[in-house]
Specification:
- By secondary structure, the protein is of the alpha+beta class.
- It has two domains: about 240 residues, BirA Bifunctional Protein, domain 2, CATH 3.30.930; about 90 residues, Anticodon-binding domain (Rossmann fold).
- Helices cover about 35% and strands about 20% of the residues.
- It has 16 helices and 16 strands.
- It has an eight-stranded mixed sheet, with helices on both faces. It has a five-stranded mixed sheet with strand order 13-12-14-15-16, with helices on both faces.
- Helix 6 runs parallel beside helix 10.
- It is elongated.
- The N and C termini lie far apart (about 80 Å).
- The relative contact order is 0.11.
- The structure holds adenosine monophosphate.
- Adenosine monophosphate binds next to strand 6, strand 10, strand 11 and helix 12.
- The site of adenosine monophosphate has 16 residues, from strand 6, strand 10, strand 11 and helix 12.
Length: about 450
C-alpha cells in the first residue's frame, strides 16, 4: 500500500490563475453557490411571459414595427449589459434609477457593469461609437427589449420589464418633438387605449439653474413639512421635488414656482413651436408644470403618456420621453440635439386587458393532418412538409395514435379541414379529406390532395 501511494502522481501545484484585470482597490467577490432542493422560482419582480399571452406581445411588437416603418425609424438592438459609467454619466448618479435601482455589479474581470435600466443612453453611445453623425441627420432608430430596475414590485412595476423606444438624433427642430408625441399618441389610439399627453419644458441647463435656485428657496420655507426623501432632493436633485408622490409634498408642489416662467427665450420659443405643431393635430394634451421626469439628461420638452382615468397618479404612466440635447456631448460626442420616448410594454398589455380590447387571435391552421398506424405516421411527416412548403398553416398531433383524440384536437384548433391517412388509404394511394364543420368525409387521390386543398382554401 505504502509503495502504491508513492506511485501516485505528486499533488499538482495550483494552476496559476489567468491574470485578472483588476482595478485599483477592486476585490471581485466570487459568487456563493448554495444548492437548494426546492424548485427554483423566478426572482422577485421577474416574470415568465407565457404562451397564453403571446397574442398580446405579438400585437404590440407588430404595431411598433408598423409605426416605425410608417415614420421612418430603423431598428437597433443593444446589449443588455453596459459599463456602469454609461448610466452614471447620462441618467445621473443622483437619480433614483442610478442611485437606488440599478442591477450594478463587478464582472469577473473587475469591471463595473450594469444591466441597463433604460436604453436611450445606449442609443447615444452607439450613435457616437458608430460615427452615425456622418449619416443623414436626424438618425431615427427604435428598440424593443428588456430593462432592469431594482424597484419595489407591484402591479405594473417589475424588476425586469420591457420597453420600446423611438429616438431621433441629430436635429433640434421642434417639429421632431411634436411628431414624436403625435406618433406616441397614435400608437395608443390605434390600440384603442384612451390616453392623455402631459407636456412640460424643463429648459436648458442655463435657465434651469436660475429656476432651481427659485425652487429651492421656495422649498426652504416648507422644509419642516417635507418627506425625508424630499429633504435630500433639495440639495441633490431639486427638480424631482415636484413629482414626489407623498400627499403632503404634492400639496407643497402645487404652490411651487413654475419652470415655464423661467425659461430663456430660446427654450420658450422652442416649446411654443412644439405646442403649435401639436395643435395642428387635435391631440389632447395637458400642460403639466410639475412634470420633470427622473433622468438628468433631459432638456427642453418633456412628456408623459397617462391613461385616461380618474386615477391621475404619474406612476401609472404608460410611457414618456423628451428632448436630450446634451446627452451625446455628455458621453464624449459632438454637441448633438436629440429627442426620444420609451413606452412600457407590460403596462400597455395590462391596459389592453383591463379595457377588454380586441387583440388579433393566433392564426387558425388551415389543415390538420391525422394519421393511423406507423407507416401512415411516417408518410404524414412528409405530407406535413409538402403542405407547409405550399404555404398552408398545418397542425398535427403526431405523438397521438387514436383518430378520435386527433380529431378532438383539430376541433379545438377550429381547423377547417382534416386529412386522414390510415392503412387502407395508404395502400390505395388515397387520403380522406374531412370538412370539420359538418364532418363530411371524401376520399381524394393522394397525388391530387394539395391541388384540391388549394382550390377549397382559395390559395
Ligand atoms: P421611464 O423610462 O421611467 O420613463 O419609463 C417609461 C415607461 O416604462 C413607464 O411609463 C412604464 O410604462 C415603463 N416602466 C418603467 N419602469 C417600470 C417598471 N419597473 N416596471 C414596469 N414598467 C416600467
Amino acid at each position: 500500500m505504502a509503495k502504491e501511494k508513492k506511485k501516485m502522481p505528486a499533488k499538482k501545484k495550483a494552476t496559476p490563475k489567468a491574470p485578472t484585470k483588476k482595478k485599483a482597490n477592486v476585490v471581485v467577490k466570487e459568487p456563493v453557490f448554495k444548492v437548494s432542493k426546492k424548485t427554483p422560482q423566478t426572482l422577485r419582480g421577474f416574470k415568465d411571459i407565457l404562451p397564453i399571452d403571446e397574442k398580446f406581445w405579438n400585437y404590440i411588437r407588430d404595431k411598433v414595427r408598423a409605426i416605425a416603418y410608417d415614420y421612418g425609424y430603423d431598428r437597433i438592438d443593444l446589449p443588455l449589459l453596459e459599463d456602469t459609467n454609461l448610466f452614471i454619466r447620462s441618467v445621473g448618479k443622483d437619480t433614483d434609477i442610478v442611485g437606488k435601482e440599478m442591477f450594478a455589479f463587478q464582472d469577473r474581470g473587475g469591471d463595473n457593469v450594469s444591466l441597463r435600466p433604460e436604453a436611450t443612453a445606449s442609443v447615444a453611445r452607439a450613435y457616437i461609437n458608430h460615427g452615425m453623425l456622418n449619416l443623414p441627420q436626424p438618425i431615427r432608430t427604435y428598440y424593443i427589449g428588456p430593462m432592469f430596475r431594482y424597484e419595489r414590485p407591484q402591479s405594473g412595476r417589475y424588476r425586469q420589464f420591457n420597453q420600446f423606444g423611438f429616438e431621433a438624433i441629430g436635429d433640434i427642430h421642434p417639429v421632431l418633438d411634436a411628431q414624436l408625441i403625435i406618433l406616441t399618441y397614435k400608437f395608443f389610439e390605434e390600440l384603442g387605449i384612451p390616453v392623455n399627453i402631459q407636456i412640460n419644458s424643463i429648459g436648458c441647463p442655463d435657465c434651469r439653474k436660475e429656476y432651481k435656485t427659485q425652487l429651492v428657496n421656495y422649498y426652504k420655507t416648507q422644509k419642516s413639512d417635507l418627506c425625508d426623501d424630499c429633504k435630500v432632493r433639495m440639495t441633490k436633485n431639486p427638480l424631482r421635488l415636484l413629482d414626489c408622490k407623498e400627499e403632503k409634498c404634492i400639496a407643497i408642489a402645487e404652490d411651487a414656482p413654475h419652470i415655464l416662467d423661467w425659461l430663456c427665450d430660446e427654450c420658450k420659443n422652442h416649446f411654443v413651436k412644439v405646442l403649435e405643431f401639436i395643435d395642428e393635430t387635435e391631440i389632447p394634451y395637458n400642460l403639466n408644470s410639475s412634470l420633470v421626469r427622473g433622468l438628468d439628461y433631459y432638456t427642453k420638452t418633456v412628456f408623459e403618456v397617462w391613461p385616461e382615468s380618474k386615477d391621475k397618479k404619474a406612476q401609472n404612466a404608460l410611457g414618456g420621453g423628451g428632448r436630450y440635447d446634451n446627452l451625446v456631448e455628455m458621453l464624449g460626442g459632438r454637441p448633438t440635439p436629440a429627442v426620444g420616448m420609451a413606452i412600457g410594454i407590460e403596462r400597455t398589455i395590462l391596459k389592453l386587458k383591463e379595457l377588454e380590447l380586441e387583440v388579433p387571435e393566433k392564426e387558425i391552421p388551415d389543415i390538420f393532418v391525422a394519421q393511423l398506424g406507423e407507416a401512415a405516421k411516417r408518410k404524414c411527416l412528409g405530407l406535413f412538409e409538402d403542405l407547409r412548403k405550399e404555404g398552408f398553416k398545418v397542425a398535427e398531433s403526431f405523438a397521438k395514435d387514436g383518430l378520435k383524440n386527433q380529431l378532438d384536437i383539430a376541433d379545438k384548433l377550429k381547423v377547417k379541414y382534416a386529412l386522414i391517412l390510415g392503412q387502407k388509404e395508404l395502400s390505395e394511394e388515397t387520403i380522406l379529406l374531412r370538412d370539420m364543420d359538418g364532418g363530411v368525409q371524401e376520399t381524394v387521390n393522394y397525388s391530387k390532395v394539395i391541388k384540391e386543398l388549394k382550390k377549397r382554401l382559395g390559395k
